Amino acid sequence: MRDSMSKALYIAEKPSVAQQFAEALKIRGRRGDGYIESEEAVVTWCVGHLVTMSYPEAYDPKYKRWSIGTLPFLPREFKYEVIGNVSKQFQIVKGLLNRPDVDTIYVCTDSGREGEYIYRLVAQLAGVKDKKQKRVWIDSQTEEEILRGIREAKDETEYDNLSASAYLRAKEDYLMGINFSRALTLKYGPVMANYLRERYTVLSVGRVMTCVLGMVVRREREIRDFVKTPFYRVIGAFEAPAQPEPVPFEAEWKAVERSAYFGTPFLYKENGFKERKTAEELIAKLRANPPMTAAVAAKEKKKETKNPPLLYNLAELQNDCSKMFKISPDEALKVVQELYERKMVTYPRTDARVLSTAVAKEIHKNIGGLKNYGPMAEYAAEVLASGSYKGIAKTRYVNDKQITDHYAIVPTGQGLGNLRSLPPLSEKVYQVICRRFLSIFYPAAIYQKYSLELEREKEHFFANFKVLDQPGYLKVADVNLAKKAAVEETLAEEPPAGEKETAEGGGEPGGQPVNTAPKKAVSQEALLQMLAKLKKGDILTLADLFIKEGETSPPKRYTSGSMILAMENAGQLIEDEELRAQIKGSGIGTSATRAEILKKLFNINYLALNKKTQVITPALLGEMVYDVVDNSIRQLLNPDLTASWEKGLTYVAEGTITPDEYMQKLERFVAGRTVNVIRMDNQYHMRQFFDRAAAYYNPKAGKSRTGTSKQE
Question: Which residues form the signal peptide (predicted)?
Answer without folding.
Answer: none
